[in-house]
């Protein structure tokens, strides 16, 4: 592991989602040493430390709201809608942005923080600002985003070594404007590996792999309650920033060993996975199988991700035509040790058939639903 991130619940009176947002000071009952003390402890273990914020939101049960009840977006003489018991701060007002900036900057100045998860867990409703006249309320949406950019700009300038990741209910605000300040974004709160095939495939149409927040999450998945194998969850998450969102203490010894191998693989091939040329080979929107691949700049290493949602019986023999390889290079396949030249792999294809294409031998572990494989192709004869 390289980075430990402390999520929601570290600040103010945040004992539930009904209180605390807006009070960005460590809860000293839970963290006697504050964020600085925890960050120092994490760093002493050889890890970097990251922290979660949701700076654009406020709970009415917070000191911040009690001091500034007029600092939320709301229409006069109408009911105020909340989402997850939170309201949207009026970032069209400089004084609001200033107040949030001072709280966040104070923590970043005192603690060794390497990463910030910037969340936004509700949409804007009642987009009316008490600071602007009625005939200018049409400007508030735009002015609000300018306020968000202003906060990002000040923080990234003062803390240029902190990595910011944007998150707006999972990809809801994953756009080039945000990417300018936060070079990676959480592409979806739906972290189920099967669902992520479509999500990441679609995101790759506009955004590089290095910008996609991808994690191995708990199973059954907290949204779709699907059980997917640990190796498939990792095989999907490799094609992004890669991380884990689960309690390692609840894994079996065998699963912990598998996680160790997965992390070692990601570290070994991170540059290729995140910065190689990405090719979409089979669309999850068109069939039961998905495939994509990355190729290193020198074309000497390629990594192919292959995924099958539902198992089949006596399926046909299959091959996958690759892209981006050097036709004259000979590549060794990590799955079977077979060497093939690039032109063969691109024009004839790489065999992906397994035991489902016939009778399963008694000494072979049968494949199941949600199967996946990673093929590493490395040059043996350039």
Structural commentary:
With 382 residues, the chain is of the alpha/beta class. It folds into two domains: 3-275, TIM Barrel (Alpha-Beta Barrel), CATH 3.20.20.70; 282-381, Golgi alpha-mannosidase II (Immunoglobulin-like), CATH 2.60.40. It has helices spanning 34-44, 63-67, 94-110, 140-158, 176-181, 193-203, 230-237, 253-275, 342-347, and strands at residues 3-6, 48-53, 57-58, 87-88, 115-118, 163-166, 184-186, 212-213, 216-217, 244-245, 277-282, 289-295, 301-308, 319-320, 330-333, 339-341, 350-351, 371-381. It has a six-stranded parallel beta sheet. Strands 11-12-13-18-15-16 form a six-stranded antiparallel beta sheet. A hairpin with a 6-residue loop joins strand 11 and strand 12 (289-295). Helix 3 runs parallel beside helix 4 and helix 6 (193-203) runs parallel beside helix 7 (230-237). The model has no long low-confidence stretch (mean pLDDT 94).
